[in-house]
Amino acid sequence: MSLFNGDRTRKTGGTGLGLAIAQAIVHHHQGQIAVKSDRGQGSLFMIHLPMIQ
Fold it and tell me: Of 47, 5, 44, 14, which Cα lies nearest the Cα of 28?
């Protein structure tokens, strides 16, 4: 399941803060971010959050 398909035709550049902000939020919720990168194929970012009991 793909929740996000990035648009690479952006007319303006980003600030580069997106992953840092996501990491802070995920860590605040005792979760983890993992990444798998393949040269020429792109990167897959996985967010793991604990379930509420």
Answer: 47
